[in-house]
Input
Amino acid sequence: MLDYDKEADVYDASRGGEPRAEAAARAVLGLIPGVPGRPARLLDAACGTGIVTRRLATARPGLRVTGTDLAPAMVRMAGARMPGAVLRADSRRLPFADASFDAVSTVWLLHLLADPADLRAALGECARVLRPGGVYVTTVDKARAHDVGSDIDGVLATRPLRPAPDAAGTVAAHAAGLGLVPCGEAVFPGTGQGRTPASTIDDLRRGWFGLLRSDDPRTEAFAARLARLPDQHRHRPDPVFTLRAFRKPE
Output
């Protein structure tokens, strides 16, 4: 897993910046109904730098948004964007009472939880702090979204893969076990995140690709094949990310 304290300063720029954040927030809010008669509360768990969290708060007047993250550097950046609304917390042990929120979102969290116990714990906590009638929204199938059918994907097709913790079927099964009911789906573009051969070589050597360590001989074999592709710095199509929504019955 990445060191998100070290990654914080470059995180936004390397992941589509404000255009991607705006698209993600719009898609999340499209799956969350309003709450008549009172302000609604939304928890954005594992909020990272808060770039999406801030847009969740500003795009819907009256929505009270709280962000949490485990990495101190991420919390500092998110707190600067949303003073007083962000705290450091582990998504597997949220510091909130039962039924505290009308909605909970996790954007790009579940794919990091390789230990099944961690995945169950995080999903269980999201369900616990959600009020009856509330909606949980999460990204699924993150790794698959980056496979856009490009020549880069052709080169990487035979790379070893680990099971995806955030596979849509896996998430849906856990949600069902927690009593959550599917209630919607949406997609949004990962603006500016299309791969280039050159950037993919860098990512390979950083150990970003599943079971391929940077010192694995296969890493350099894949890198050599990528280096022979044309247009080394031309971005291939952007990924399209998927959100799934689940409702907690009243």
